[in-house]
Structure formats: C-alpha cells, structure tokens
C-alpha cells in the first residue's frame, strides 16, 4: 500500500510541474505581449526606432497634427503649430511620455491584445485620433509665453474639453535641435520632454488664497463682516508672514482684491489645520487624477508637521504645498461650473481603420468640489478682483473672473524670480472657458501672467464667441 501511494505521488510531480509551467507561460505572455509585438525591432510599427504605422492625429477642427506618409511620420505644415502642440502630440521616439503618440500608442497603431498587430498589417495603418485641442489656440498661447518657460491650459468648464494645452520649452519636431537637448546645460531646454500642464507641480502662491477663501466661506460664519489689520506683516509666535503692502484695516473682498498676506494668514489661523486640510481634501489634493490615459502629477498639501507660523504661510500658498496646473484648472473650472468639476479630456474621438468611431469623449462629472452657494460666492469674489482691482481693460469684453499669484520659489525649485500665475474664467454665456497660466520665474502675476491669459482668452473669444 505504502509503495503504491508513493508511486502515485511521484506521478503527480510532473503533472504539477506541467501546470505550473503553463501558468508561467500564460502569465509571461499576458504581461509581455504588448512589449513583444510593440518592441522597436518590429518593422511593421517602427523604422529606425521611429513609430511609423500609426494613424492620423488631428486637432478639434480636423487639422492634421501628425500623419504617416511615404513611410515617414509627418507633422503640421506650420512651424509654430508643430512647436506649440509638441507635448500633446508627443514624439515618435517616446521621450515625451504624456504625448498621445506614446500614451495612446496602442490606439494609434490599432494594436490589441487579442489581435496583436493583425489589423495594422491588414490595413497598413492604425486608428485615427482626434484631439480636443485647437492647434491655432495652442500656437497663440505658446507665443504669448514669450521667452519664458511655463504652461497655458484652457478648458470648457461645462464639457471638460481641453481646447488649449501648451508647454514651454518645446522644439519643432520636424527640425529637432541638433544638440543633446536632454542633457542641455544652457538651461534653454530644461525639462523639455515634460508637459508642464500634466506633469509639472508648482508652489501656488496667492492663487491658493482662492482655496483659503473657500474654506473661510464654509467655516467662518462672519467672514464677510470681519475687519482685520495689515501692518505690512502678521506676527505669529515670534515669526512673521510678510505682506507686500501695508493695507491697514480691511475686509474679506478687499483683502482678496489686493491679495493681502496678513489678512489671509489670520484667516488660516482662524480655520486651523483640520478645516483647511478638509477643504483641500475635497478639492482632490494628495489624490491621483488621470486625463484619459495620462496621469497627472499629484498636487500635495500636508500640514501634519506645520507650526502655527507654517499654517499662516500655508494660507497664502507659500508653505510646502505644490499644485499641478491641470488640477488647478479643474478647481477654477468647478467654481465657474457651480461647484462640480468636470472630467477634462484631451482625446475627442478615435476612429478605426474602417471609419468606425470606437471612442467618443463625453462630458463626465468629476468631484463635487464646492457647494453651489460657496461656488457662487467665489465667482463674485473672483469677478470683483478683475472688476475692482486688475481692471476689465486688461481683459477687454471677456467678463473675466480670476486671481493672480506671484509664487516665491526656493533656489532648489529653480531660479530666484517668482513664478507668475493666473487662474480664472470668463462669465460670458457664450464663453464657458477657464484658464490657467504659469510663467516660470516670470515675476509678478499681474504684470506677466495676466497679459498671457488675456491674449489666450481673446483668441478663445475669436474662435468660440458668438
Ligand atoms: Zn496686507
């Protein structure tokens, strides 16, 4: 008996080994199939390491941004459009990770796990991708950034369509600079493969006062009637939060208009770490967001080790807080949209080789960031900033609402001049568009970021206004 069962057991060993082998094989195939057939040696997809068998990429109007012709990847005829859309289109080598030529490579080539590259061989090309952006608008925004590095994003805050996404520095993809731009020492091409809109994070500076204001509206009952003092600085536990002005005694609306640091440091202290953190949690700080297949850099807010003085600085956006520009656009978009954010989208549609639409972007609600009443109050405050402080003449006929920021940066964040921000939106019924502008080391928010925002929004009005 004993001998028999031992023999039976011996028979099991090869059977178990065989099954285990099958599992490993299937697992390896499942996890690597994509890499095996998409690898650069596959000549159906790549020539000399460059993606060729991909479909067309067009903008929202159908203008060609990239296509395959004569076995080569070709781009828009206009140099300024090629440069301004570099980061959304991406390069054919895959250096720009968030570009659709990389992030939507499977869709563009028509590769699927089940069929492999069968369809590509059959039709000779992949699927076509229509982007949400308007190429001319991207070019205008890119030009408006002038000689500065930075980013501009514009979104329809009712639908989520990202009509403008541009990031600088960039280069003309058709005439790639001959020097080694990845290791460029001059600083001209610093972070050139990074789409700053999706992958950048910045100190928010005074744009964060919009968030402190939201928390104040929700948590401080008499915020509208409080009068607080600004003597040019607010002292907390022996340290002080400096203000750029000596604003005297002022109320909430005026304090946001003139961006008084003393006022908002005091508001942050009244709120305390718990309430301010709860507000940032509701807005999606420390959370991962995606735009289609593109992952956003995470905005971070953390007061766990903050002193009272730190809390004061956090209230004016000058603590360890970092904000991603696309996330900031979702936040101002939510204010404009009555409190609920919409999910931004970059890919408008995907059409397969037989002309069938296989994906169509639709409007999806995102986080309920603010209550309707808080959103309405914030709309009024941001409108007051433009009307009573920056001046409507800076945004002719746009009925803009917004807030500037001049974010002081530490030397390890790069440069000594502050980053200039503008976040805002138009209240015109025919122009439901929100905008974010970051000009790296640009200096003052109102002197540098407002003109960029205005030039971009004027183009938005020209394109979509009625
Ligand atoms: Zn002040």
Structural write-up:
- By secondary structure, the chain is α+β, with helices and mostly antiparallel strands.
- The chain has a domain at 199-346 and 362-464: DD-peptidase/beta-lactamase superfamily (Beta-lactamase, 3-Layer(aba) Sandwich).
- It contains 15 helices and 21 strands.
- The protein has helices at residues 2-38, 79-84, 86-89, 100-103, 105-109, 118-123, 135-144, 196-199, 209-219, 252-258, 261-282, 308-315, 325-336, 372-390, 445-464; strands at residues 46-47, 50-51, 57-58, 64-69, 72-75, 128-131, 150-156, 162-168, 228-230, 233-236, 239-242, 248-250, 290-291, 294-295, 340-342, 347-351, 357-360, 365-368, 400-407, 419-426, 433-439.
- It has a six-stranded mixed sheet, with no helix packed on it. A five-stranded antiparallel sheet has the order 8-7-21-20-19, sandwiched between helices.
- Strand 16 (347-351) and strand 17 (357-360) form a beta hairpin.
- It is globular and about 85 Å long.
- Residues 230, 243, 245, 247, 260-262 line the site of zinc ion.
What is this entry, summarized?
With 466 residues, the chain is of the alpha+beta class.
Write the layout of secondary structure elements.
Elements: H1 2-38, E1 46-47, E2 50-51, E3 57-58, E4 64-69, E5 72-75, H2 79-84, H3 86-89, H4 100-103, H5 105-109, H6 118-123, E6 128-131, H7 135-144, E7 150-156, E8 162-168, H8 196-199, H9 209-219, E9 228-230, E10 233-236, E11 239-242, E12 248-250, H10 252-258, H11 261-282, E13 290-291, E14 294-295, H12 308-315, H13 325-336, E15 340-342, E16 347-351, E17 357-360, E18 365-368, H14 372-390, E19 400-407, E20 419-426, E21 433-439, H15 445-464
Parallel strand pairs: 3-6
Antiparallel strand pairs: 1-2, 3-4, 4-5, 6-16, 7-8, 7-21, 9-12, 10-11, 13-14, 15-18, 16-17, 19-20, 20-21
Helix pairs in contact: 7-15, 9-11, 9-14, 10-14, 11-12
